[in-house]
Amino acid sequence: METADLRLWSPRLWGAHLCLLVVLAGTVMLGYWQWHVSRDHRSDQVDSLVHEQPRSLTEVIGHDDSLLAKDQGRPVTITGTWLDDATLFVQQDGGGYWVITPIAVGAATDPAIYVVRGASPTTTAPRVSGTTTVVGWLEPDWQDSTAPATGLPHDVLPRLQLSLAAPHVRQDLFNAYAVVADKEGAWTVGVVNDGTTGLTPVPSPTVPHADATTGLRNLLYAIEWWLFGCLAIYIWWRWTQDQLHPQPASEQAQDEVVPSEP
Predict the structure, then answer these.
(1) Which one of 159, 196, 204, 253 is at 20 to 30 Å from 78 when CA atoms are compared?
(2) pLDDT(185) > 60
């Protein structure tokens, strides 16, 4: 058969091209679907962690421990004593201040954790005292080695960094802080959150991290489908090359010759 005029886009090869397009469309869409399912699984787990029943602060982190990535953004209950004399204000880039007050977890001399009670347009906030129970989202300490801003009042911080807040407190601090959370309808814990009166709520800066294995199977399925697409391209390319550059009959016959036994 004469093949000298056969080109890649010759009608004779249209069927192979069409098959490739169909296979690629299928593998790409199925891969994207599995990738999307993987992301949904991770998003669902994060959402469940944010809205899960709060646990006691000391069940999640000890005052000498570092906050694990999997516990960032988790809701916890903090029961203790307000230390109003250590109230500070954290300057915000968009204007206004976060109002942060430590709660001694237990008696007034026990280790404390700073709590973001809310935001205020000025460096004033209602005083708090006595015992309290609040629910807050745990956040990691901001590790920043840059020099603190100068020229600020003694009770104003340029950022919420515990090393800057520590000199204002007599006792040890937890290596994390908490942002007071609004009460969820599904939460069964008794929540007072009395330190938020007159302040604007502050959303949690971070969300929990999903487990590394969450959605992994679907992600691997997505990669598998895309690899099938790559294999289809390779098969199509090899087949079209064989059609465009067929092996001469003499070479085919030579290749088929089986050497005789001596």
Answers:
(1) 159
(2) no
According to DSSP, the residues that pair with 100 across neighbouring strands are 88, 116
Mean pLDDT (whole number) for 174-187: 77
262 vs 256: CA distance, rounded Å? 18
Q: How far apart, in Å, are the Cα atoms of 166 and each of 148, 155, 173?
A: 14, 12, 7
Tell me which residue of 185, 181, 177, 178 sits closest to 203, measured CA to CA.
181
Burial 70-105 (b: 16+ CB within 10 A, else e): ebbbbbbbbbbbbbeebbbbbbeeeebbbbbbbbbb
CA distance 56 to 66: 16
- Residues 18-54 as b or e (16 or more Cβ within 10 Å = b): eebeebbeebeebbeebbeebeebbeebbeebbeeeb
Burial 121-139 (b: 16+ CB within 10 A, else e): eebebbebeeebebbbbbb
Taking a C-beta distance cutoff of 8 angstroms, is the pair 130, 81 a contact? yes
The pTM (predicted TM-score) of the whole model is: 0.63
Q: What tens digit of pLDDT does each residue of 67-122 get?
A: 888 788 888 889 999 999 999 999 988 889 999 999 999 888 899 999 999 999 99
For all residues of the chain together, what is the average pLDDT? Answer: 82
Q: Are 136 and 76 in contact (CB under 8 A)?
A: yes
